[in-house]
Amino acid sequence: MLAIAGGKGGAGKTTTTLGLSAALDAPVVAADADPDMPDLHALAGVDREPTLSSLDGRDPSTVAQSLPESGVNVLPAPRIDDAGGLDRSLDRLARSGRPVVVDCPAGAGPDAATPLRAADATLLVTTLCAPALRDAAKTAAMARTLDAPPRGVVLTRTRSAPEAVVDLLGCPVVASIPTVDPPILADETVRTAYRRLAARLGEDLL
């Protein structure tokens, strides 16, 4: 299970979750672990239900909604009043044996820690602005503490990859996603960037 995490909302975690999932060769479960800001289903264009909390021991493929031609199965975030068992749902998903990419809440609080506890590794997502980078550094430290070490950082809204980011976050820049007009994932330069990211990461992290 790969956690897509970062300190600031709006940095591109949800786009990276879906873009990377679609770029990987194996059928991937893309799950939303952010009940407060449930964006994945809207970006994917699927129904709000059933959610991650609907697993209840069932195979994810019987609950998740499949995106045509992409091999991605989407599990929307639980609703707020049903989010108490999120940790158990993520554990079930992690034990399912399927490749999983999880869209995490922003920040370094308890909500952000829950999916990191279930994940094997973390992919950080941030813009190059100083506050976002500082918060990403906090997320990186939390991920290491929770045994989901960062394997790389995706920089969004840029084509550059400054070495200072590597020093700050302690992991390589594995992709730079350029600024494009929405819909972002329809742009071929963005899709190519996520295909390169998928090839660089491989599927052993999932």
From TrEMBL:
Sorted UniProt keywords: ATP-binding, Nucleotide-binding
Coiled-coil zones: none
MF (Gene Ontology): ATP binding; ATP hydrolysis activity
UniProt entry tagged with the keyword Secreted: no
Gene3D superfamilies: P-loop containing nucleotide triphosphate hydrolases
Example of a GO biological process term: negative regulation of cell division
Any one of the GO CC terms: cytoplasmic side of plasma membrane
Region (Disordered) residue spans: 50-73
Domain CobQ/CobB/MinD/ParA nucleotide binding: start-end pairs: 2-161
InterPro entries given in the database record: CobQ/CobB/MinD/ParA_Nub-bd_dom, P-loop_NTPase, ParA/MinD_ATPase
Species name: Haloplanus salinus
Protein name: CDP-4-keto-6-deoxy-D-glucose-3-dehydrase
SUPFAM superfamilies for the chain: P-loop containing nucleoside triphosphate hydrolases
